[in-house]
Every structure is written in C-alpha cells, then in structure tokens.
Design a protein that fits this description.
about 230 residues; seven-stranded antiparallel β-sheet; about 25% helix; binds glutamic acid
Length: about 230
C-alpha cells in the first residue's frame, strides 16, 4: 500500500501532485502516475521513480486545475506502466487506489459481461469501470462513488475524478488511511499528511467507511451509515 494524492484548485495542480508524491517516496513504491482533467483526461505514468514521471509530465506539458496521483506498490499484476495508476474507464473516469479489492475477480466477470474491456491485470481497474457504470446511470459522481464503495470488499482508499465533472473529486476510506487537506480556494486529498503539508496544515482525517466529495470551496463527507 503506497500513496494517493489529489488536488482541485484555481492553479495548475500538476506541481502540487508531483511534490505530494515525492513526499510519499519514503514509503517505497514501484511506479507512479498522475491524471488531470484538461479538455480530456490526460495521464502520465512511469515505472520507477517519481522523478522519471515528473520528466514525462514536463515533456508533455501536463497541466490542469484538478487531478489525482499515485505511487504504486503492486499487489495484483506486475510492475508495468499499463498496471500503474491512475486507471481510466472510457476516457471519462480516472481512479487511484491504495490497498486490495478482494472481490475483484467477481466484479471483473460482472463488468466484462456488461461489455467493459480490461487493459490491466490490477484489482484497481474494476473500481474505474464500476464508477463509470454507476455514473452513466445516475450522472452524479458522488453517488456513483458511494454505490461503487458499497460493492467492493477489501481494504482500500480511492480518489476519483470525472471528465464531465471537472470541478469535483471524490474519495473513500475503507481500511486504508486517507485525509482531506483544506486550502484557500483549493482542497486536497492524500493518504499521508506529509503529502499536503507544503500547501496546508488544516486537515480532516477520514473515518472508516467515509466517502467524500471535494470541490475548490466545499467538502461533503458521508459516513458509513449514510449521514
Ligand atoms: N492493488 C493495487 C495494485 O496492485 C494497488 C496497490 C497499492 O496500494 O499501491 O495496483
């Protein structure tokens, strides 16, 4: 289990995400990636160091006002760029995930029967497709994230963004740490407080089962009982 970062801001979040990931490097990892929304979902991933990924992001001129990032410690599927996070469904939903989805094989069979094509060997990719499946039915990223979490078994922290909702990020904590950092006109998520400390010292630690929706100026948290 390694690192998650996310940011929604009025400034380019790519430096924030990469700085956050570099603060999580001490935890160990095998690959890294970021995805931002900027006319489409733009993603950069690399096996190896965050610095390698930073170089690719710079070469591609990656920027955006909302995005998520990840350092991976592979549990399901080898250490390859294709298995690195973020994982994307239908070019519209991007997901980062720490932990393990225990019922991923069952969910993968169900999603394949619904027509979803899998690109990776990870357990994580089922989350991207499940959010996409629910989002296409309800049109609400927060609700789609809650429906998805209710169907997952395992220990996980996730961060999600959607092309059609470019001001909204969602996240959930079940068995893996996750927190929200509160900034001025910008907000963050991270698996470890060290990833947000250069931007803010105001932090909400999510509790077990919490699902949250985060915009630039608002944070909404629904707990495990739906309150
Ligand atoms: N189980 C996921 C994978 O293998 C996430 C591992 C992690 O926490 O980095 O990709």
């Amino acid at each position: 289990m390694c690192g998650i970062v996310g940011a929604v801001s009025q400034r380019n979040v790519v430096p924030i995400l990469i700085e956050g990931l570099s603060r999580l490097e001490y935890r160990g990892y095998d690959s890294a990636g970021v995805a931002v929304i900027n006319g489409g979902i733009k993603r950069v991933r690399a096996v190896g160091r965050v610095a390698d990924m930073r170089g690719k992001a710079a070469a591609e001129g990656l920027q955006g006002l909302i995005g998520i990032g990840h350092t991976r410690w592979a549990t399901h599927g080898g250490v390859t760029e294709t298995n690195a996070h973020p994982h994307i469904s239908h070019d519209t939903i991007a997901v980062v995930h720490n932990g393990i989805i225990e019922n991923y094989a069952e969910q993968r069979r169900r999603l394949e029967a619904l027509g979803y094509i899998f690109e990776s060997q990870t357990d994580t990719e089922v989350i991207a497709h499940l959010v996409h499946h629910h989002y296409s039915e309800c049109g609400d990223l927060f609700a789609a994230t809650r429906y998805t979490v209710a169907e997952l078994v395992g220990a996980f922290a996730i961060g999600v963004v959607a092309l059609d909702a470019p001001g909204v990020m969602t996240c959930a904590r079940v068995g893996c740490p996750l927190l929200i950092g509160l900034g001025e006109g910008e907000n963050f998520i991270a698996s470890d407080v060290s990833a947000v400390l250069s931007s803010t010292r105001r932090v909400i630690y999510l509790e077990e089962g919490d699902v949250a929706e985060i915009t630039r100026d608002c944070v909404t948290i629904v707990d495990a009982t739906g309150n």
